[in-house]
Every structure is written in structure tokens, then in C-alpha cells.
């Protein structure tokens, strides 16, 4: 039975998510079609650039991605705090980069703002409240990404109809072990599929993008001055902004149109999330870049179709720090999407989440115990 999206994506549980979207009928609509001979490889670049472009608008960061011939993976971090720091004008400006916006919003952002009545200003501010929530909403991010790519691909093929399967799949990443497993799973997807030999050759992946840059640029932490360090008493991650006028809400969806491709194509790609081995900043991936490269290189040698079964003698530093055995991690790291359900984490994290969701069982607890090697009752 399909789970409601609200039960799968809850920022009170975690801001980190692994998402997957597949082409309809799993056809090779982003690669080379062996039946027709058509080559759609260039569409993989569309998806890569659009995801990073949307990250420059939404309060959502891209930690890892891999765009394959008939599907793509993203590892994302939702930063609700960031969108709440934006004032109304910033929120409306960001939203109208993607959607046309109602007339009152367009006037609010123009020189005509001084002529607006008090009621019109209140209306524009109500729109801003709604949009602020959408700008840290994973479903809206994915909707804009998939809809814009489908529209562009259909225009190229001169056809109409669905390009993507019904809805994207998501997995909550509950702890550092889950984040590491998901990122390495995503970055090594092309190697596991046998379409490339090494990390540098894996086209349209975050690891290849990082490796193509100077290491000091890829690992530099660039943190906004307003971004707080980790604090135990930081405000709750989830905040509901609800406009006071129901009539405004009912008209928001119908009154807006996704902007044309030439406008969306002008979005500047956001940088990938930086690595922060110190764990001090919410804006960083909590691993060091050298340690992550060591792990992915080690796993890449083990999972390539012509080299499977080759277990390294030493344990990569990241696995050692997180208390994960190399053989167990390798044995399960490349079937995450099917071994786990709507969440990935150590057994204790999954048990806690099941209790919060008031369900008896979450798929993947046995795999988590084998993979991460932690006691199921560690949190009790």
C-alpha cells in the first residue's frame, strides 16, 4: 500500500532524504535506446543542471546525485531554517524565478509597490507566507524538476504525455550511517551498473563533479554569516506558515504557470554541499572529503562488475569512525533502495521512527543490523 507523502517526509525526523525518479515504463528516455537507436544522453545533463539550478532557489541543498539512462538519484538536505530567515520580498523574488506569480505579487516586486493598498500588501504577504513553506518543501522541488524536464523532453520529441513514473520515491536518512550509505550508493551507481571504470569517468554524478574541481575548492566551507553552528537548543525544524485568507490559498495553484524553458535555463547552478569533517556546521556534510574519496574509491573497486568480491585489507577511515565493518557494508550498500523502505538508519533509529509513526515495523531493520552492526535495542 502506498504511504502518504506526509508520513515519509517529516523534517522533525530528519532533514536528509534520498529520492529517486524513474522514466515512464523505465524506458531509456535519458540514454541510448537500443530499440530505436535514438540517443538521449544529453538529457542527463539537463537533469543535472536543473537540479542544481533549483537548489539555488529552494532552501534545499544537493549532497549527491547520479543521473542514469532511465532514472536519477538525489541526496538532499532540506534547510527550513534558511527559508524562514528570508524576508517577504526575498521569498517572492525566488518564487517568481520559477512561476509567473499572481498580479499582486508582480506589482509588489515592482516600482508599483508604493501604489498598493493595505489589502493588496496583505495579500502579497499572505502569498509570501505560503511560498516560504513551499521553498523548503521537497515535493515542490521535485515537482518543478520533473515537470520542467518532461516539458522540455516532450517538446524535443514533439509528443505529449507522461515522461516520469507516477511520483518520486523517497527514503528518510536518519543518521550519519544512513547518509554515508546513501551518498556512496548514489555516487557509485554508474560503476555498479558497469557503464564506467572509475569515479572520474562516471558522467553526471556528484563525485565526478567534485573530482573535476580543485580539491581545495570542493572542500572549502562557505557558510553564510547568518547560518548558526550546531546547537542543542536550536528552534524546531518544522514550522507551518499559513496565510490567513483561505480564498488566497485556493487560488494560488490555479493562478500560476511554470515559467518557460528559456527562463528556467538561466538559473545559476548552486554549488554542491561542502564536506565538513568537524561536524560544526549544519550546512556541511559531516564527513571529511579525503575520507569520503577513500571510501568511494575502495567501494568502487569492489563493486565493479568485473571486480566484484574483492574485499580490501584495511578498513576505510569513515567506516572505522562509524563502527561499520567493511565486508558487511559492501555486502548491503548497493541494494539500499530495495532492502530498506521509507527510511534508512541504524536499527535503533528505525525502532525510534517506528514508534513515532505508531507502526509496528519498518522494512530494513534486519538489513540495518547486518550492515551497520549495531544492537537493535541500543536506544531502549
Task: Walk me through the topology.
Layout: H1 5-8, E1 16-22, H2 42-55, E2 60-67, E3 71-78, H3 80-85, H4 88-95, H5 103-108, H6 118-134, H7 138-157, E4 169-173, H8 176-187, H9 189-192, H10 206-211, H11 215-219, H12 246-252, H13 261-264, H14 289-303, H15 317-321, H16 326-332, H17 336-339, E5 343-344, H18 347-357, H19 365-372
Parallel strand pairs: 4-5
Antiparallel strand pairs: 1-3, 1-4, 2-3
Helix pairs in contact: 2-7, 4-6, 16-19
Biased composition (Basic and acidic residues): 227-236
Domain Transposase IS200-like: 12-189
Organism: Ectothiorhodospira haloalkaliphila
Please, could you describe this protein's structure?
The structure is a single chain. The chain folds into two domains: 9-174 and 223-270, Transposase IS200-like (Alpha-Beta Plaits), CATH 3.30.70.1290; 175-203 and 286-372, no CATH class. A five-stranded mixed sheet has the order 2-3-1-4-5, with helices on both faces. It has helices spanning 5-8, 42-55, 80-85, 88-95, 103-108, 118-134, 138-157, 176-187, 189-192, 206-211, 215-219, 246-252, 261-264, 289-303, 317-321, 326-332, 336-339, 347-357, 365-372, and strands spanning 16-22, 60-67, 71-78, 169-173, 343-344. Helix content is 43%, strand content 8%. The two termini are 29 Å apart. The radius of gyration is 22 Å and the shape is globular. The model is unreliable at 223-253 and 376-380 (pLDDT under 50). It is of the alpha+beta class and 380 residues long. It contains 19 helices and five strands.
Amino acid at each position: 500500500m502506498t504511504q502518504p507523502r506526509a508520513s515519509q517526509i517529516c523534517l522533525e525526523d530528519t532533514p536528509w532524504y534520498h529520492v529517486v525518479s524513474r522514466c515512464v515504463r523505465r524506458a531509456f528516455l535519458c540514454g541510448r535506446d537500443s530499440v530505436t537507436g535514438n540517443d538521449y544522453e544529453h538529457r542527463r545533463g539537463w537533469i543535472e543542471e536543473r537540479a542544481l539550478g533549483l537548489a539555488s532557489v529552494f532552501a534545499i541543498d544537493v549532497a549527491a546525485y547520479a543521473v542514469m539512462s532511465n532514472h536519477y538519484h538525489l541526496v538532499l538536505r532540506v534547510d527550513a531554517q534558511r527559508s524562514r530567515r528570508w524576508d517577504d520580498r526575498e521569498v517572492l523574488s525566488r518564487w517568481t524565478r520559477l512561476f509567473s506569480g499572481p498580479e499582486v505579487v508582480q506589482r509588489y516586486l515592482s516600482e508599483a509597490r508604493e501604489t498598493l493598498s493595505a489589502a493588496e500588501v496583505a495579500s502579497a504577504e499572505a502569498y509570501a507566507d505560503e511560498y516560504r513553506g513551499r521553498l523548503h518543501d521537497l515535493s515542490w522541488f521535485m515537482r518543478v524538476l520533473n515537470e520542467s524536464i518532461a516539458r522540455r523532453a516532450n517538446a524535443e520529441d514533439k509528443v505529449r504525455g507522461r515522461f516520469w513514473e507516477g511520483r518520486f520515491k523517497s527514503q528518510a536518512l536518519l543518521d550519519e550511517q544512513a547518509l554515508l550509505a546513501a551518498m556512496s550508493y548514489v555516487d557509485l551507481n554508474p560503476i555498479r551498473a558497469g557503464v564506467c571504470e572509475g569515479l572520474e569517468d562516471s558522467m553526471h554524478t556528484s563525485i565526478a563533479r567534485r573530482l573535476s574541481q580543485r580539491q581545495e575548492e570542493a572542500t572549502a566551507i562557505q557558510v553564510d554569516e547568518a547560518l548558526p553552528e550546531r546547537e542543542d537548543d536550536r528552534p524546531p525544524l518544522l514550522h507551518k506558515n499559513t496565510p490567513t485568507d483561505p480564498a488566497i490559498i485556493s487560488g494560488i495553484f490555479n493562478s500560476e504557470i511554470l515559467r518557460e524553458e528559456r527562463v528556467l535555463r538561466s538559473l545559476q547552478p548552486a554549488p554542491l554541499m561542502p564536506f565538513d569533517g568537524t561536524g560544526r556546521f549544519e550546512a556541511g556534510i559531516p564527513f571529511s572529503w579525503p575520507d569520503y574519496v577513500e571510501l568511494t574509491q575502495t567501494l568502487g573497486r569492489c563493486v565493479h562488475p568485473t571486480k566484484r568480491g574483492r574485499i580490501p585489507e584495511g578498513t576505510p577511515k569513515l567506516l572505522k569512525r562509524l563502527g561499520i565493518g567493511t565486508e558487511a557494508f559492501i555486502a548491503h550498500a548497493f541494494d539500499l533502495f530495495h532492502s530498506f523502505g521509507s527510511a534508512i538508519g541504524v536499527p535503533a533509529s528505525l525502532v525510534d521512527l517506528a514508534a513515532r509513526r505508531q507502526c509496528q515495523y519498518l522494512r530494513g531493520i534486519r538489513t540495518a543490523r547486518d550492515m551497520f552492526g549495531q544492537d537493535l535495542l541500543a536506544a531502549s
